[in-house]
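Render this sequence as a predicted structure.
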Amino acid sequence: MTKTVWTKLGLLAGGGDLPLEILKASGDRPVHVVVLRGFADRDYAPFETSSRSVGEIGGIIKDLRAAGCDAVCFAGYVTRPDLSTLKMDARGLIMAPRALAAGRKGDDAIIRVVVAEFEQAGFAVVGADSLLAKDGLPAGLIGTVEPDETNRADAVKAMEVAAEIGRLDIGQGAVVADGVVLAVEAQEGTNAMLERVAGLPATLRGSEAARCGVLAKRPKPIQERRVDLPTIGVDTVERCAAAGLAGIVLEADGALIVDRDGVRAALNRHGLFVLVEPAR
C-alpha cells in the first residue's frame, strides 16, 4: 500500500476523546481542528481551530484550505443530524440529496459520500488508526484477566452477531451473555446500548460479583475504515463494568483503543478483559 504524503492535517472533531488523542499523537506536526458544533464536547482552545456545522461542507473546505491543510481526518462520534434544524451552506445543500439517497442504504453509505466530497476537493483522507497506532492492534489479550470458556464462547457469538448486523449496515456492536444475545447496536450507539444492558436483570447480564457477558465491536464488511473504525476507551470499560459484563472482544487491526494505558488500568481495576481476535 502506498503511504499518503501530506504536510498539514485538518482534524474534523466530533464527540469523545479520540480527536484529543490524535492531537496528542501528532506532536509537532501542524494540525487545524474544525470543531463540529453540536457534537464536539471537548476543549480545543489551545489548538488552531475553527467551528462549523456538519452541514457547512463548503465552509469546512474553505477553513481547511485557508489553514493550509492538504489532508483531513474524521474523528469522534457524529450521529445523523436533524436536517430541519441543520445549518447548511451551498455546498452542503448540493451534497444533501446524494447523502439522503445514500442514507437509505445505511450510515456507511453516507460516510462514503462525505469522504468522496473531500477527496474531490483535493484532500487526502487519513484514517485515525494510521495516526495513532504505529503497530496496529495485534491479536492477544489486554489486561491481566483471562477469559474463561464461557467468556470465549460468548465472544465468538457476539462477533458473529456483530458481523451480521454490520453486513446489513445496522451497527458495529453486540452483547452476548451465556449464549443469549442481550443487545445489538443501531442508531443509538454503543454507550446507549450498554445502558440498555445495564437496565436488564442481573440474572441475564451478570454483576460485579459474578461477571457475565461480552461486548463485541468490529468493522462492518463494507466499512470505510478511514472514518468510522470501532473505538473503545476508558469510558467503554466503565460502562461494561457497570453492566456486569466480563469483557470486550475486538478484531485485530479493526478497532481503535483510546488511552491504552488507561484502558488497561480500568480493566484490571474492574476485573475485565479485552480480547483481540484475528480477523475472520
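Summary. The chain has a mean pLDDT of 91. The longest helix spans residues 149-167.
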